[in-house]
Design a protein that fits this description.
The protein is mainly α and 218 residues long. The protein folds into two domains: 103 residues, Orthogonal Bundle (Endonuclease Iii, domain 2); 100 residues, Hypothetical protein, domain 2 (Endonuclease III, domain 1, Orthogonal Bundle), CATH 1.10.340. The chain contains 14 helices and no strands. The longest helix is centred in the C-terminal third of the chain and has 19 residues. It is globular and about 55 Å long.
Length: 218
């Protein structure tokens, strides 16, 4: 679970393990019975920790607006061509990046990320809002991507991504809302789930998939 160092550094809790996720889920269940009901249907929530660093953000850019299968195929080609480090992106031509499967726009984004010279080790010690601010200065990285990076690559326990359509729909179903909440409304709603908003997101994603399967939604 989170160490005292995490708490003292001004970045809040860090999710290191399944036990941390379970702690957050228990807090949410005590906080609101609807979360408890959702957890009964979803079962234990996934850890979903990912590596941090340049390659993870580049992979997120590659995945934008394409299917999961297409993103995996493109990323595999980039790995085979060793195009997952900033110095390699800067060294090769647009044609080589296009051959790996990147569109013209994503080539521009990949180069922008390479040129941004982000200190990813330093980023680990930045407050959540500063992480999002630094990342969204890079062309091609929006608030959603930055929040997902903070949530899963940095393990931040109190980050939420209210622009995510599945989270919006999961909240609509679980809280019996008349319509899917917009980003601003869901961000405000999620304030009540602090300091475990990242676990609330995991629970809403899991619940959305349960509800979708139950209702036969595609």
């Amino acid at each position: 679970m989170s160490s005292q160092g995490d708490l003292n550094s001004g970045i809040g809790r860090i999710i290191h393990s399944d036990a941390c996720v379970a702690e957050g889920a228990a807090w949410l269940s005590d906080h609101d019975p609807r979360f408890a009901q959702a957890l009964e249907q979803t079962g234990p929530l996934p850890l979903r920790r990912k590596p941090d660093g340049f390659a993870e953000l580049l992979s997120a850019i590659v995945s934008q607006q394409v299917s999961v299968a297409s993103a995996r195929a493109i990323w595999a080609r980039m790995e085979d061509a060793q195009l997952t480090a900033p110095e390699m992106i800067m060294r090769v031509s647009d044609d080589e990046l296009r051959a790996a499967g990147l569109s013209r726009q994503k080539i521009r984004y990949a180069r922008a990320l390479s040129e941004a010279d982000i200190d990813f080790n330093d980023l680990r010690g930045k407050p959540d809002a500063e992480v999002v601010s630094i990342l969204t200065q890079v062309s091609g990285i929006g608030v959603w991507t930055a929040e997902i990076y903070a949530m899963f690559s940095l393990g931040r326990a109190d980050v939420f991504a209210p622009g995510d359509l599945a989270l919006q729909e999961g909240a609509r179903i679980l809280f019996d809302l008349p319509e899917r909440p917009k980003e601003r409304a869901l961000r405000q709603m999620a304030q009540g789930w602090s300091p475990w908003r990242s676990v609330a997101a995991r629970l809403l994603w899991a619940y959305y998939h349960v509800a979708k399967d139950r209702e036969g939604i595609r």
